[in-house]
Specification:
5 helices, four-stranded antiparallel sheet, Alpha-Beta Plaits, alpha+beta, elongated
Length: 240
């Protein structure tokens, strides 16, 4: 059985979306939660673009009228009995996680910047000299520290007003030299417009940066429990 998500509405009909391979979805209830699954027609689930988008479409359709805990792409359990066992064993964690994200969605932010560090020109230096080499290295390290400090300052200026509009947030600085900030925000549904407006204001205030806001998404970044898959691995909830 392929597992898409855990929801808080076991009585709800599954959405009209079909699962992987065009197979209809099933909702397997346990007390006041349910697992949305579909039978597999193949032994493996290759991470093709079609399969990734089919997984995403199912989770987003569920999000329309339910609170969802999205599963990582490729979460497979042996059969319906195995799904029911996971629901029973992890019931308390699932309920707590559903309460945590209820009424909220995830918004993502990526900020790109010009990360070029101007290197000290060494044309007039004899780098074969130990002293000149050390001086050049020290200058490069000074520039790198200044670059990192500037990045941290910018991230704080951008992230702080957005985090104030969110219940929770995560951030990573300089994932790559070009990617200044990647962040996720758990936002109340009625605050989405205000959050997007704030991003627009920051874009105007920092014209040298490129701010890319995405979502609303299911709350991939804010659920941390794991589910054992048929291959024995534990798969956290995560964005595909």
């Amino acid at each position: 059985m392929y597992l898409y998500a855990i929801t808080d509405r076991p009585e709800a009909n599954v959405p009209a979306e079909v699962g992987l391979g065009g197979v209809p979805l099933l909702s397997l209830a346990y007390q006041d939660i349910a697992a949305v699954v579909s039978p597999l027609t193949t032994a493996e689930v290759p991470p093709t673009e079609e399969n990734l988008w089919r997984h995403e479409a199912v989770v987003e359709a569920l999000m329309a009228d339910s609170t969802v805990l999205p599963m990582r792409f490729g979460t497979v359990l042996a059969d319906e009995a195995a799904v029911q066992a996971v629901l029973a064993v992890h019931y308390a964690d699932f309920v707590a996680s559903l309460d945590r994200v209820r009424g909220r969605v995830e918004l993502g932010l990526r900020v790109l910047w010009d990360s070029e560090i101007r290197k000290t020109k060494n044309e007039n230096r004899n780098l074969n000299s130990g002293r000149s080499y050390l001086l050049a290295r020290l200058e490069e390290e000074r520039q790198a520290r200044a670059w990192r400090q500037r990045a941290e300052t910018l991230v704080t200026e951008l992230h702080t007003p957005l985090a104030q509009l969110a219940a929770e947030s995560t951030r990573q600085v300089l994932v790559t030299p070009r990617l200044l900030l990647t962040a996720a925000y758990l936002v109340e549904r009625d605050q989405v417009t205000a959050f997007q407006r704030e991003v627009g204001g920051l874009s105007g205030a920092y014209p040298a940066l490129r701010l890319l806001c995405t979502g609303p998404w299911p709350p991939y970044s804010f659920v941390t429990a794991t589910v054992p898959s048929a291959d024995g691995e534990e798969r956290p909830y995560a964005r595909t």
